[in-house]
Design goal:
- This protein has helices at about 40-50, 55, 70-75, 80-100, 110-115, 120-135, 135-155, 160-170, 175; strands at about 1-5, 10.
- With about 180 residues, the chain is mostly helical.
- It has a two-stranded antiparallel sheet with strand order 1-2.
- Strand 1 (about 1-5) and strand 2 form a beta hairpin.
- The longest helix is centred in the middle third of the chain and has 19 residues, at about 80-100.
- The N and C termini lie far apart (about 40 Å).
- It binds zinc ion.
- Zinc ion binds near residues 25, 27, 29, 30 and 37.
């Protein structure tokens, strides 16, 4: 990253992982089962437009985290232990390094062609996504890299339609609302 201020320039390393959270609307309760949100559609749109499309495009995984209802808070069954998840992640990363000597996140455009092979159904789903959800070239590359990681987690050499569909679900909600929900394909 190069910072230029008043005729002086400084360079800083900038390889980082960004984790960010935002509210769904100005009051924070949009979609809450208690119906507490009274924000107008227009206010919600203006609030969300504060983050530009090109910025959102560069974030690989977008997740909606709905409010947890009271019953789930008190009766939640224990989930999978983090240690088990950690093992899967390490294994998937080892696959990536063995194949291409870097993580999927660091693949350049030419490397994506080389390493992100899709089966015919996955390719067709991607084409459909580009047509229906207005997916940009930059977003498409990110969808492919995330799908490659999902395939690595499943020990698969080729990217399946299921991996592409899941990867598309991590795109910003606005990409997805432009057409059919990817999960339905
Ligand atoms: Zn609201």
């Amino acid at each position: 990253m190069t910072l230029s201020r008043a005729g002086r320039q400084a360079e800083f390393p900038a390889r980082f992982q960004l984790v960010a959270a935002m509210n769904p609307c100005p009051c924070g309760y949009l979609g809450h089962p208690g119906g507490r949100c009274h924000c107008s559609r227009d206010r919600v749109d203006r609030y969300r437009a504060r983050l530009s499309g090109p910025l959102l495009d560069r974030i690989d995984l977008h997740l909606d985290v709905p409010a947890v209802c009271e019953a789930a808070l008190f009766d939640a069954t224990p989930g999978e232990p983090s240690e088990a998840v950690r093992g899967r992640v390490i294994e998937a990363r080892e696959r990536q390094w063995a194949r291409q000597s870097c993580s999927n996140a660091r693949l350049g455009v030419a490397d994506i062609d080389r390493w992100c092979h899709c089966d015919p159904a996955a390719t067709e789903l991607l084409r459909q996504a580009v047509r229906q959800f207005n997916v940009s070239a930059r977003a498409l590359h990110r969808v492919l890299k995330v799908a490659r990681t999902l395939a690595d987690l499943a020990h698969a050499d080729t990217i399946s339609a299921a991996a592409v569909a899941e990867s598309l679900r991590y795109r910003p909600a606005d990409d997805r609302s432009a057409g059919v929900r990817p999960g339905a394909v």
